Amino acid sequence: NQIIQQIGGPEGQNLPDLNVTQLLDLVAFVEFFRATIEDAFPSIGSMHAKKTYFDERPDLFAGDKREVNMENATDSLAWVNNMLWEVHRLASDEFLLRTRSQTEELISKVYNANHETYQTSEMRLITSLCEDTFSLVGVHLKTIRER
């Protein structure tokens, strides 16, 4: 619930306020959480929660408070798993939107910049444009892979 509040609710209204590192950390956390939960409880991945737990905590214990109410526990885990997967989708979309915008801006600058041009003895023209573009893409890929 705290993650949902920090990103601005289920719609992710505060995601634009996060920096790229925070977005990638959020995506990585959700992927780790989901893998851990689904390893421990394989059926959770395909479950849909019967209720939401925004305003109330799930009643995890049976009547005598000594045994876990497995139905409520798995329902709440399914809700958390599904909710976090939606957070993952929103954060990924925000990251890709920013990356695309930044890449388009940088590519535009690369194409508009002055490039070194050479002419070979065979009269072929060689430019640094390809190398400049490749370097830009390499920086983006390295950042994504590191996160």
Summed up, what is this model?
With 147 residues, the protein is mainly alpha-helical. The chain has four helices and two strands, in the order αααββα.
Describe, in plain words, how this protein is organized in 3D.
The chain has helices at 2-6, 20-40, 70-112, 129-146; strands at residues 117-119, 125-127. A two-stranded antiparallel sheet has the order 1-2. Helix 2 (20-40) runs antiparallel to helix 3 and helix 3 packs antiparallel against helix 4 (129-146). By secondary structure, the protein is mainly alpha-helical. A hairpin with a 5-residue loop joins strand 1 (117-119) and strand 2 (125-127). The longest helix has 43 residues, at 70-112. It contains four helices and two strands, in the order H-H-H-E-E-H.
Attribute tags:
147 residues; mainly alpha
What is the ordering of alpha helices and beta strands? HHHEEH
Number of helices: 4
Largest sheet strand order: 1-2
Low-confidence stretches: none
Number of strands: 2
Secondary-structure-based class equals mainly alpha
Shape: elongated
- What kind of sheet is the major sheet? 2 strands, antiparallel
The average pLDDT score comes to: 80
Helix content: 55-70%
**Cα Rg:** 24 Å
Q: Between the first and last Cα atoms, what is the distance in angstroms?
A: 24 Å
Strand content: under 5%
Itemize the secondary structure elements and their pairings.
Layout: H1 2-6, H2 20-40, H3 70-112, E1 117-119, E2 125-127, H4 129-146
Antiparallel strand pairs: 1-2
Helix pairs in contact: 2-3, 3-4
